[in-house]
Every structure is written in structure tokens, then in C-alpha cells.
Amino acid sequence: MKIVIVSTFRCGSLNIGDRLITRSTISALNMLFEEDIKSSTVFRADKWESVESIVLKSDFVIFACLAIRRNIEKTYRFLPELLKSGVPFGVLAAGTSLGVSSSSLSFERSFTDRDIKVLKDLTEKANFFSTRGALTYSACKFLGLEKSVLSGDIAFFDDRFKNRRFDAPVKIRKIAISDPHYVSVYEESFNYLVSRLRNIFPNVEIHLLLHGKNDEAVKLARKADVLVEQIYRDSENGLDKYDNYDLHVGYRVHGHVSMLVRRHPSYLLEQDGRGCDYGLTFHCKTSVPHYRVIKGDKYNQVSTTGIEILLAMIVSDYENGFSRFSSFNQQIYKFVSSNLELIRTISDSDSICKCIS
């Protein structure tokens, strides 16, 4: 069985979170189908001419965390041709980045009429269509994508940690901060976060873990005397660095995921719609809104209020042995089982059965 994965990871951008999504999808396929599967990967923005032969020879195509964006055909340039090809496909853990900092968020105005038409066509033809967060799921339902279900992020699949349980650290010695996306307006936020963490946990080691090339964040960390770990340089194993920390307090959703899946305490500062999507989906509150707000024609420095609110939660949790995280075992299991159940249906497709019979 030949499976093509449409990935959001591009080597040039070096976003290790996108690589995690792709790797988790491949790992899940390999676990379920073992030697019966051969997978390959294409980038979402490739032209049809460069992917046509591999897609048409495949038995199934998986969109790994489909990025639902305005003008989606610019994000997925070969989408029209794929929809016409007749090759069976599924959408796994789609996500959005909606304008949650806007004073008037509107699902309808977030997309063009053409986007809605394409998404409806995509959903109707897909063998399955799942979303990774509650905000994305709600948007899909509003747009009339009736086949959509909420599965959680496929990035939570990592068979190495399936038997782990949350074990609260007795003492906080090392803290990981994942880097902000929009450094220019998060400078005050980052400096305040570092200062307050040092105040709460004296003598703690604080490291900035880079999820992608981010020169501004490196400069910011060095000024704050924070050690920088360029984990994105090792796209296969870089996220394993999270196992070395007692606590994560940061800005990246897949830093949050990487820590939680390893059953370590983690807290997220929601920068945009992606962070909001996760915050709404988890049964246990571990994040707070920390959005950019535009004034006039530019963004102002982000208020430090969100940090103080999040740190109040952390202080209380530390004194109570981080007991809130015990419920995450069940939720991670649910995310993983939901995604595996969808992937398992690939072999039930009539077209696939004909190909492998």
C-alpha cells in the first residue's frame, strides 16, 4: 500500500513542530500497517507537476494537519488537481490560525467564497476529515463541513511514551521556554517571563528552545543571559530535549505538546488562533490568551498581564504537586486512539482493497 503524506514541513523553514506532525503520522502508519505500507512525503505548496506522478501512483493521500487558511489554494497549490484525480484521501487533524485577537472574529469573513467552496468539496470527497482543536472544529461546522470530527493533534502519537504517567518534579531545576513567533512585539513579554521565573524559582536554569530559525529570539535570550538550544537543527530528535526539563512555560504549541506527551508539566502562552485552538480543546486549563493587539497600523508590545496570570497558576500547581496534569493521561489517550482509528480506516476503503488484493 503506497501512502503519500502532504506535509506542512519544508526543509528551508526548519519548523520542528511541522516535522513532528509529519513524523508522528508516519510512525502511526508504520505501527498500524507494518511492512504492508510504503510512505512518501510531499510539501503542501509544491506544484502539481512536481507531485503528479507520485500522487497518481499512490493508493491513498493523507493531509497531515491540513492548514486551513484564507486563499487555501495558495497554501495547497496542487489541491484542485488532487480533487479531480480520483485518488482517495483523508484529512487528519486539520488546524486553523483564526484572528482571535480581533475585536470581531468572524468565521464567515475569515475565508473567501472560493475557500468555502473548495473546503466543502474537499470534505465531501475525503474518506475522513478531522480537526485538531475545538476552534477549528467549530469553524468547520459553521462553514457546513458536516463530515468534520474533532480528533486532537496527531502530534500526540509517540509510542515511546504510551506507558508514562505524570510524575511531578520535587524541585524545579531546569525550565524550557519555547520561542515566540513574533519576537518584535514579545520582547517585553519574554524578558518579564524570564525575570518572574527566576524570582519564583531561585537558582533555576532557564533555556530557550528554538523551534525554527529565529535570530531575533537568540539575541533576546542572550541579553537575558538565557542559554539557547537550537533544537530545530535536529529535526528528527531535537524535541527529545524536552525530556531534560522539569517544566515548560512557552509560546509554541508543539513545545507544549512535546512536554505533555512526555508527561511533564507544561504551560502555554497563546500567541494566536493556533494556541487558542489547543487551549479550548484540553479538558484541563494549562494556557492563557497572550495575543498581539494592533493599534492603528502596527502591533504594540504584548501586555505582561497574561504572564502574571499564568504564573499564578504555576505557583499554585507547584505547591499542589501539579495534580491538574493527572487528567491528561486520559485525554492524550483519547487523542491518540481517535487518530489511529481514522488512519486504520484507510485499509477499509474499497479502492485500497482493490489495490492491495
Dominant shape: globular
Helix content: 25-40%
Low-pLDDT runs of 5+ residues are 353-357
Reading the helices and strands in chain order gives EHEHEEHHEHEHEEHEHEEHEHEEEHHH
Strand content: 15-25%
Question: What class do helices, strands and sheet pairing give?
Answer: alpha/beta
Number of helices: 13
Task: Tell me the Rg in angstroms.
Answer: 20 Å
Distance between the termini: 10 Å
Number of DSSP strand runs: 15
Largest sheet properties: 7 strands, parallel
Mean pLDDT across all residues, rounded? 94
Topology:
Blueprint: E1 2-7, H1 16-33, E2 38-43, H2 48-56, E3 60-64, E4 67-68, H3 72-75, H4 79-85, E5 89-96, H5 113-125, E6 129-131, H6 134-142, E7 149-150, E8 174-178, H7 187-200, E9 205-209, H8 215-223, E10 227-229, E11 247-250, H9 253-261, E12 266-270, H10 273-281, E13 287-289, E14 294-295, E15 298-299, H11 305-319, H12 328-344, H13 350-356
